[in-house]
Amino acid sequence: MRKEKISSAVIRRLPRYYRHLDDLYRGGTVRISSSALAKSMGLTASQIRQDLSCFGGFGQQGYGYNVERLRGEVAEILGMNRNHTLVILGAGNLGRALIENFPFAANGFRLVAAFDVNPELVGAPLGGVPVLHMDELEDFLADCSASVGVLTVPARVAVESAQRLAACGVAGIWNFTNMELPESELSGVRVENVHFADSLLTLSYMISEEPV
Fold this sequence. Notes:
- This protein is α/β, with parallel strands linked by helices and 212 residues long.
- The chain contains eight helices and eight strands, in the order αβααβαβαββαβαββα.
- The protein has a six-stranded parallel sheet with strand order 5-4-3-6-7-8, covered by helices on one side.
């Protein structure tokens, strides 16, 4: 039985669990103990058991975890089997890199279209994905709803673009604009902000520290 409220820390560890279990599964591992899983992930066995207990009981005393089953359970918890669809707003450098290189399908998403205002990009498919003009966004989403909108547009149009997506009924926004979006103005749409600079500056801090 799933608990009423799952902490964000647990939720953010779930993709790491899935990624690790997927590697084990593809490597032929059939079962693994919580202690072995913890050691390979740099966590504690109690942490793993506590995290997974938020969603039910998956292990077996004296046996551990069936890797294939647990991988499938975590995938289900993450919504990877729900046929999510996705559109990208902004088909420039970053948008193009995501379209051509990011494994959307392997993560449970089907990329259905990209949108841009650049006449040199509109009308020329990228990686098999149609690139439409931004003026077509509302009509397209009226006919082909999307679960998530990805923002790789310039920051100056980030809020407007997010509001258009929210008005079209998207459930979530994956935001690469380096600008925090006001969720209070987005009709309950969930936002995941990605700041490359935050990650780089965190690394900067770590390498700038005096050695122990």
